[in-house]
Amino acid sequence: MQHAPPAAPAVRETLERLLASETFGRSERARELLRYLVEREQAGEADRLKGFSIAMDVFGKDGDFDSSTDAVVRVQAGRLRELLQQYFANEGIDEPVRIAIPRGGYVPAYELNAIRLPEPAEAVGTPIAALLEQPAESDIGADTAALPAPPAAAPAVSVLRQLQFFWAAIALVIVMLGVLILRQGSGTLLAGGDTPSTIETAGATNSISTAPVETLPLVYIAMRTNSDEAGRVAASLRAGLTGFDTVNFISRDADRSPDPAADAASFVFDIMPGPGTGDITLELQSVATGRVLMSRSLTAADSAPSTVEGSVAAILSSAVPASGTIYNYIEQSGLQTDLTQCLILNDKYYLDQNDKTHEAAYRCLESLASRSAKSSLVYSELASLHLEAVSDHYAYPPDASIDKALTFAHRGVQMGPTSPYAHRAYGYINSRVGNAEQAVSWMRKAYELNPYDLAMAAAYGYGLIFAGEYAEGTPIMAHAVDTSSGHPTWWDFGLFVGEFMLGDMKKAAAASTALRTTATKSHYLAARLISARALGRDALAARLLDELTTKFPKFAADPRATFVERRYPADLTDRLVEALRAAGLGSAS
Question: Which of 99, 125, 446, 580 has its CA 20 to 30 A from that of 377?
Fold first, then answer.
């Protein structure tokens, strides 16, 4: 017996609950793919759900996509099927509608779960049904009771059984609606608000909040020229943008009439012909206002196959992270959401590391986590900040520990298994606890997940340096520092250590000049002291020595203890202690 398919509203409601679930909160790609498949099928476009179209619309592939060499669609579809099975076996076990992606294709299938019609051959197993099947003595006389049962008795039992299931299903729907209303309207009820108006508003906006706390900037690409150079730049932009967790890359065309309200935090990379033959001009614009936020000219050499990735990486690293052009515009225009505001505060801490900037960033992200944030960024950045609290002995949070930092990092990786930021945080923690091999492994993975983000390159180089692989890590770190002007100071410290261990004190000293003295970074001041002494700048060395002794007496008395606590390699610790002793730091241990 074939059952009627679920109605479209029921499918949409199930889809929205599924996308907001904890199971799917771990994979943005799976959410995007599922929404695309269901929405296209519901719009009557099931015939468009082919691997090529999905690759272009969802994963930003271009017209050269070849499914025989690029398995992204098949891999992500397989992952989606696994998540659907997991969801309906756990969180969504009571969902009235089940969604599946049958193998061999990408068209969704739907099945009624709680509301199901029974088969006629099923036995009646309830005492109530048995009683209802018996004729009532008050309505039927003795003579008629002796008559044989009419032929329609069996179908009547089936109808009765269906009615029982029908009323049970209605009761279940009522209970579910009650739970939904309580969830959405409990705040208003507790506050003494008007329940009908709350429900009406929610229905009108299709959302409890008009500004979702985790909304990220939208970024598009617009092609204004079809040259080979433009095609390579566009392909690199697509590949790079998909790896940044700080924006949502939209692969469809942005050519439409802008909406100042809806597009306030939307941006487009315009790829246009450049001034010379083979040149490309790349502009970053606000979709809403048309304001040009960044303009770069790429020569034919810059967009050559061997160099285009590096050229685009430099542009994206200055535009897309929380320290970049897009977030600067958002902050200046007052367009922050809860998540983007937290990411801006987090970036400000790494640019100016002190207890106040740390607490501001930590409390902001902590607030999102307490509200069950779905972005893996919340947990990965909390993990790093928590470790900073342990290492630099910040007052907040008062219960900071390595174990709690690891818990946050683990949560970040769970929710963002392809997030480079989550992998970087895990690598950073492993570095601080002395697991050099694991640190390098996690940071290498972060870099592989997004080689267009110089921050991931810097993290990988840093991990290599503090694993004792100075010759391999220092060039990577140097490239990141030289290419990115507005970077965190830990990049400079990593470069100082690498050049110091390779014996190039001129380059080490150049890196140390960017290290600001803070209330917690004694090793930054130590690096500047070592550099001044090595370059023969005795007056500066004397002043820095006095400052180090005054501000960090514990470090000055036993610098080795600090380096050991920070899990520096043994050879690095010995060299630093020796250099500090030569700079006049007492009898540096």
Answer: 99
Strands 218-223, 248-249: pairing is parallel
> Own/partner pairs for 295-298, CB < 8 Å, 24+ apart?
298/229, 298/233, 298/274
The answer to whether the Cα torsion of 474, 477, 481, 484 is positive or negative is positive
The one-letter amino acid code at 25 reads G
Cβ neighbours around 294 below 10 Å, total:
17
The Cα 237–Cα 62 span in angstroms is 11
Give Cα separations from 143 to 90, 131, 133, 473 (angstroms). Answer: 57, 21, 19, 100
Question: Of 416, 419, 441, 414, which is closest to residue 428 (Cα–Cα)?
Answer: 441
Whether the Cβ atoms of residue 246 and residue 343 lie closer than 8 Å to each other: yes
415 SS3 class: helix
Q: Give the pairing of strands 280-286 and 109-112.
A: unpaired
Contact 533, 579 (CB under 8 A): yes
> What is the greatest pairwise CA distance in the chain?
124
C-alpha dist (Å) from residue 575 to 349, 477, 566: 30, 20, 15
Identify the DSSP state of 520.
S
Residue 58, C-beta contacts closer than 8 angstroms, at least 6 positions apart: 32, 33, 36, 251
Cα–Cα distance for residue pair 423/447, rounded to 1 Å: 9
Q: Which among 106, 2, 128, 116 is positioned nearest to 45, based on CA atoms?
A: 106
Sheet holding 292-298, edge to edge: 248-249, 218-223, 266-273, 280-286, 292-298
CA distance 372 to 366: 10
pTM over 0.70, yes/no: no
Helix crossing, 522-534 with 489-502: angle to 10°?
40
CA-based end-to-end distance of the chain: 84
163-172: pLDDT as tens digits: 555 566 666 6
Contact between 238 and 61 under an 8 Å Cβ cutoff? The reply is: yes
Average pLDDT in the 209-228 region?
A: 81
For residue 559 the two structure tokens come to: 């610098």
Cβ of 165: how many Cβ atoms within 10 Å?
14
Rounded CA separation 315/483 (Å): 10
For the segment 428-441, what is each residue's pLDDT rounded down to a tens digit? Answer: 998 888 888 999 99
Cβ atoms of residues 92 and 22 within 8 Å: no
Please state, in angstroms and rounded to a whole number, the distance separating the CA atoms of residues 241 and 260. Answer: 23
Whether the link from the prior residue into 397 is cis, omega within 30° of 0, is yes
